[in-house]
Design goal:
Blueprint lengths: L1 E4 L4 E7 L6 E10 L2 E8 L4 E7 L25 E9 L7 H8 L6 E2 L1 H17 L6 E10 L2 E9 L3 E7 L4 H15 L8 H16 L5 E9 L2 E9 L5 E8 L6 H5 L17 H17 L11 E3 L6 E7 L13
Parallel strand pairs: 6-9, 10-12, 13-15
Antiparallel strand pairs: 1-2, 2-3, 3-4, 4-5, 6-7, 8-9, 11-12, 14-15
Helix pairs in contact: 1-2, 3-4
Length: 331
């Protein structure tokens, strides 16, 4: 068994059975102080996941840990919300819709995580209504006992209009618009809006198998209003015609190819090149190296090249193997 502490809460272990009985990779993630998630995967792909409760024991007197405060004014323990105050909501969406998005009605219970989730939902709603640069700040006020008044202030920011060109079908354009607005939730400055829009659209089309989609976005400002213009050319459906392996110095190429979805034909046709296929192959390569003792391997996203017809691509998988972890003990 070979183990590695990846982070303070994440560790991995590779084990090989005696007599050629196979190998397995196990990951342990400490979700909470007393709750651990374990996932084991063998080289054949079979997986087992379980949650374990970890109980520790101490000798001697223990001092009670102080409550953990939050900027929302709520401790880790559940608190009753006596009153909910919301100010600064633009119209649309309006105050009623903002309260519904928060999901924290007076007379109900909530804790710090509920406030954070509610604020994130409200930001998504504001982005959908043209305010992607908005800020939502919630804090507890008039704290008394187990009750708290929750006050949420919204800074809507400038209005941002989104124009889409190159997509004729109304439903397709609306789906693209929603994807862009979802990505804008992570943006904090206006000049970052075009780049975020391009990434969101390209990801959407890659999920559909259109790996050669061409997207360009521009930003215009008029007073305190911004306009993002998207020019889209979806392109054809693209298939993985060839697979190229780089950096696989310690891995048998035929063995690696036998596990890759991109190198398997579907009937007489090459597989459709999608984001799910690329992510699955990336994970398979990582597990193959883990099972061989390379716990420091780096597997970046695949690189796509288009040397031939417009509907064919070469998928380049590149790895940085790193050192092979020595076998320290057998258990």
């Amino acid at each position: 068994t070979v183990g590695k502490q990846i982070s303070p809460r994440l560790s991995s272990a590779w084990s090989a059975g005696m007599g050629g009985s196979g190998s397995a990779v196990e990951f342990r993630f400490r979700m909470l102080p007393h709750l651990e998630l374990r996932q084991a995967t063998d080289i054949g792909g079979a997986a087992l996941a379980e949650l374990r409760y970890i109980r520790g024991f101490r000798v001697g007197a223990q001092r009670q840990a102080p409550a953990v405060p939050s900027r929302a004014g709520l401790e880790v323990e559940t608190r009753w919300i006596r009153r909910l105050e919301v100010e600064g909501v633009p119209d649309p969406p309006g105050e009623a819709a903002a309260r519904q998005a928060l999901g924290l009605a007076p007379g109900t219970q909530g804790e710090m995580s509920d406030v954070l989730v509610g604020a994130a939902r409200l930001r998504e709603l504001l982005a959908k209504e043209g305010h992607p640069l908005s800020e939502v700040d919630c804090e507890g006020r008039d704290d008394s006992g187990e009750e708290v008044t929750l006050h949420c202030t919204i800074k809507a920011g400038p209005y941002v209009a989104l124009e889409v060109q190159g997509v004729e079908k109304k439903k397709a354009a609306e789906r693209l618009r929603r994807r862009v607005q979802e990505g804008w939730v992570e943006v904090s400055r206006p000049e970052k809006l075009p780049d975020s829009a391009e990434r969101s659209v390209q990801q959407l089309y890659l999920q559909q198998g259109r790996a050669r989609a061409e997207v360009s976005a521009s930003l215009e400002q008029e007073g305190d209003r911004y306009t993002v213009r998207l020019q889209v050319a979806p392109g054809p459906m693209v298939r993985a015609a060839r697979v190229q392996l780089e950096g696989f110095d310690s891995m048998d190429h035929s063995r690696a190819r036998s596990h890759l979805e991109a190198d398997h034909r579907v009937g007489l046709r090459h597989p459709l090149l999608t984001e799910a296929l690329l992510e699955e192959d990336q994970d398979v390569i990582r597990r193959l190296y883990y099972a061989s003792g390379y716990l420091d391997v780096r597997v970046p996203p695949a690189r796509l090249e288009f040397p031939g017809p417009a509907d064919e691509a070469t998928v380049v998988y590149q790895v940085e193997e790193g050192p092979r972890s020595p076998l320290l003990d057998v258990s």
